[in-house]
Structure to design on (277 residues):
């Protein structure tokens, strides 16, 4: 008599049984060595990466400050024989102008390093201490450098849209982004005429049961995200749909086209009839 065959468990169920504390890896070669090291030294390796990002940030700041420092030095020399007030006014104005020169330069410097460093991320699910999380960490670290320095000064303008495009976000025509609370830009797609309201949070990841999940966010043409709405990883919003202010769209939610959603979590509020062509 043959033994009964046991059906294979779904992949997510298998993942749920993984020991997230074990210093093992299913990779091969150098990747396996690096991942095992990361999992074994869970404090030292992340700290090394963090301080490496600090050093890189300092270098990018220095690179972006070259022109402002030249401007300051030039103005200081030109006003050396002027009265204290005139010299102070000239130097102060130069410092103010230098900040904006620094900010716009930093925007391109950050985008450049995002291109040359290992920052490519894609849909993925696994433990936080995995090799796949390193590009995600670097990518967001670079985005946050702009977010916490200069990005608020160019939001909402075509310049913040340009920055997100350079960081890998897919952005259609006529898009308005009135928020700096955006993570994982390379996992986000905005169709034509999408409006992202003030202080909207867009993230292409979420945590679940000790796992990190990276999942793309797709927002269809003409959709509107209301003030302070939160859209999490794996969400798809259909064309011309509307998300009311302060709504929270949970991971993997799919909002159909031409409908109005709102609340915490976001639920269907009103069905919006398609516009007549």
């Amino acid at each position: 008599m043959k033994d009964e065959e046991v059906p294979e468990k779904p992949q997510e169920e298998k993942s749920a049984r993984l020991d997230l504390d074990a210093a093992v890896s299913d990779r091969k070669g150098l990747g396996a060595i690096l991942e095992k090291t990361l999992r074994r030294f869970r404090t030292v390796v992340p700290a090394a990466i963090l301080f490496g990002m600090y050093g890189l940030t300092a270098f990018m700041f220095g690179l972006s400050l070259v022109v402002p420092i030249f401007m300051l030095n030039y103005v200081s020399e030109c006003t050396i024989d002027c009265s204290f007030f005139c010299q102070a006014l000239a130097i102060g104005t130069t410092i103010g102008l230098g900040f904006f020169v620094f900010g716009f330069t930093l925007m391109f410097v950050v985008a450049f390093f995002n291109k040359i460093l290992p920052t490519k991320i894609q849909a993925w699910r696994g433990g936080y201490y995995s090799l796949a999380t390193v590009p995600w960490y670097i990518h967001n670290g670079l985005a946050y450098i702009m977010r916490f320095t200069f990005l608020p000064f160019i939001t909402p303008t075509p310049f913040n849209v340009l920055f997100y495009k350079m960081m890998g976000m897919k952005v259609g025509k006529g898009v308005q982004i009135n928020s700096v609370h955006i993570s994982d830009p390379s996992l986000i797609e905005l169709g034509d005429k999408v409006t992202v309201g003030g202080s909207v949070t867009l993230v292409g990841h979420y945590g679940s049961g000790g796992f990190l999940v990276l999942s793309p966010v797709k927002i269809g043409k003409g959709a509107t995200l209301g003030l302070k709405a939160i859209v999490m990883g794996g969400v798809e919003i259909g064309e011309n749909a509307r998300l009311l202010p302060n709504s929270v769209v949970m991971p993997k939610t799919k909002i159909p086209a031409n409908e109005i959603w709102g609340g915490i979590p976001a639920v269907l509020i009103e069905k919006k009839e398609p516009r007549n062509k």
Observations:
- Confidence is low (pLDDT under 50) at residues 1-16.
- Residues 156-277 form a domain with the UDP N-Acetylglucosamine Acyltransferase; domain 1 fold (CATH 2.160.10.10).
- The first strand starts at residue 124 and ends at 127.
